[in-house]
Amino acid sequence: MSADGRRTVVVTGASAGLGYHAAEQLAAAGHRVVLATRDRGRAEAAERSIRRFVDDASIVHVHLDLADLGSVRSAADELAALEPDGVDAVLNNAGVVGAPIRRTTAQGTELQIGTNHLGHFAWTALAMPLLERRGGRVVHLGSIAHRFVRLDPVDPLGDGHYVNHRQYARSKLAVMLFGFELAQRLADAGSAVTSVVAHPGLSLDRLSPARPDIAPTRPDPAWIRPAHRLVAQGKDVGAQPLVHAAVGADVRAGEYWGPAGRLQLRGPAARVHAEAWAHDRTAAAQLWAASERASGVAFALDALA
């Protein structure tokens, strides 16, 4: 963190949705934002949009495709060259939400768990030296969907009998198991880096403020938005727990942040409850070992002890 309190925050998937709104909010708060995206054209559009709303925004780009571990390694090298003095936070937001037919990453892992968890697992390990230089923070994007699934202890990266929405939920449970376990392992190693999990509740594009540079405005029937606001919120509001988890002064390692409202669907950012199985250290260890094997990337936490 700079002497004036400005942080350097990397946001994956920053060209749309929650990632975009998180990046805009971070820039508006005076932080330097690294847009880590897989499409350079969309990253440029996101930067244009942020600059429409934030004077003097400090924004740079890194090319990152989390569905290709080769791209993940190249992106980590690019980030190290761009920010040699380190980064203060990495907000692991990017993800695939739904794949009606089974699809895979470049290395053959099912696309949702391969992108949402495995790509971020490797990315976080490779970015750890930059975070260590500043005692930084990793924020993992969880989901209320973790409530409804478990991982297979024999094949935690597998897709079982593939069902689209269940596989998405499994990918988010994997993200949360990793995030909470990383917090424990960093603390055990005496690292100054912290790991936090956050989620946006039920956040919808149609309830978000218009950003024509990044998403077309879609007309809705007059009743749609008031009805949806009873149980949901815009992605700008959903991004607030993520942003707070990344830069909030009251955030501590291993916490879970999300909306404070009923069922954590909407509301202001607050510490919230995750299901016990998201903290299961046996399941987390199985997932961790499988993730190291599949990614070929290991965390050098023993060197910190």
**The named CATH superfamily:** NAD(P)-binding Rossmann-like Domain
Largest sheet: 8 strands, mixed
Instruction: Report the sheet-strand fraction.
Output: 5-15%
Total DSSP helices: 8
> How many structurally independent domains?
1
* Element string (H = helix, E = strand): EHEHEHEHEHEEHEHEEH
CATH topology: Rossmann fold
Give helix % range: 25-40%
At CATH level 2, the architecture is 3-Layer(aba) Sandwich
How many whole angstroms does the radius of gyration measure? Answer: 18 Å
Strand order of the largest sheet: 3-2-1-4-5-6-9-10
Morphology: globular
Average of per-residue pLDDT values: 92
Short description:
Helices cover 39% and strands 14% of the residues. The chain has helices at 17-28, 40-53, 69-82, 111-132, 164-188, 224-228, 235-247, 281-295, and strands spanning 8-12, 32-37, 58-63, 89-92, 137-141, 194-198, 203-204, 233-234, 256-259, 269-271. The strands form two sheets. It has an eight-stranded mixed β-sheet with strand order 3-2-1-4-5-6-9-10, sandwiched between helices. It has a two-stranded parallel sheet with strand order 7-8.
